[in-house]
Amino acid sequence: MRRFGSWAALMLALGAPAAHATEPALSPEGLGRLIECRGSTEELGAYGEVLLSDKTSWLKRLDENGHAGMLGLWSFRLGHPVTIFGRSVETVSFLNQWVVIELPRAEALAVIREQGLLRAPIRITEQYYHFADPDKSPMLGAFAPTDDAIGLLFGAKPPADEENKTLFIGCNYAPVTLKDFLASAAIANSMLDHAQ
Questions:
Q1: Does the predicted model carry a pTM greater than 0.85?
Q2: 116 lies in which domain range?
Q3: How many Cα atoms occupy the beta-carbon half-sphere of 136 within 13 Å?
Q4: What is the β-pairing status of strands 87-95 and 73-84?
Q5: Contact 190, 116 (CB under 8 A)
Q6: How far apart are CA 24 and CA 26, in angstroms?
Q7: Given CA atoms 71, 30, 132, 168 in this order, what sign does their dihedral have?
């Protein structure tokens, strides 16, 4: 039941499929555009039906993604590799309204530099961000796997950035502004201060 609940939560986060979208218009390349923040919330929602149906030949859900501690993270294997941020990729992941790929640290940092992402002012985890428009989403970003997020909130020591062997990088389509994002970072820092 718990697994079904998180799966249902993902579907709600992605939103209802766009009325005009049909499966032939959806593709691994389309997901690549979404991950690079070249899509829209409506396009993201259009993939919800495909994810739920599990009937497409080009997108298969993985039972294991190596991050059991990241509740709500769902990973999928593409039917064929696609180029995302100039890298050949076969696996994509969804986390709430994030659509991301996971890269080895050195590759992820290269993309972060290429895309002009800034280090987020948050201490609980390594995170980077870039808003093309500070007054609206989407937000291009990168973040470290948070396999022990609960432990961090209860006083576990955050790992040093260099200890993160991989980073997720992609696009967050949640309706948030730069001001909202920085305010959330400040709240997270305050929670960390109280936990320690």
A1: no
A2: 2-195
A3: 3
A4: antiparallel
A5: no
A6: 5
A7: positive
Q: In whole angstroms, what is the distance from residue 66 CA to residue 11 CA?
A: 21
Within 10 A of 104 (CB to CB), how many other CB atoms are there? 11
The total domain count for the chain is 1
Task: Walk along the chain (196 residues) and give the pLDDT tens digit of each residue.
Answer: 334 344 444 445 555 444 444 444 789 999 999 999 999 888 898 887 777 766 678 888 898 999 988 888 999 999 999 999 999 999 999 998 999 999 999 999 999 999 999 999 988 889 999 999 999 999 999 999 987 666 666 667 778 899 999 999 999 999 999 999 999 888 876 765 665 5
Closest CA to 181 of 124, 138, 148: 138
Structural tokens at position 160: 């040093």
Q: Pick from 160, 135, 152: which is nearest to 194 by CA?
A: 152
Closest among 135, 141, 144, 173 to 34, alpha carbons compared: 173
Name the 3-class secondary structure at 92: strand
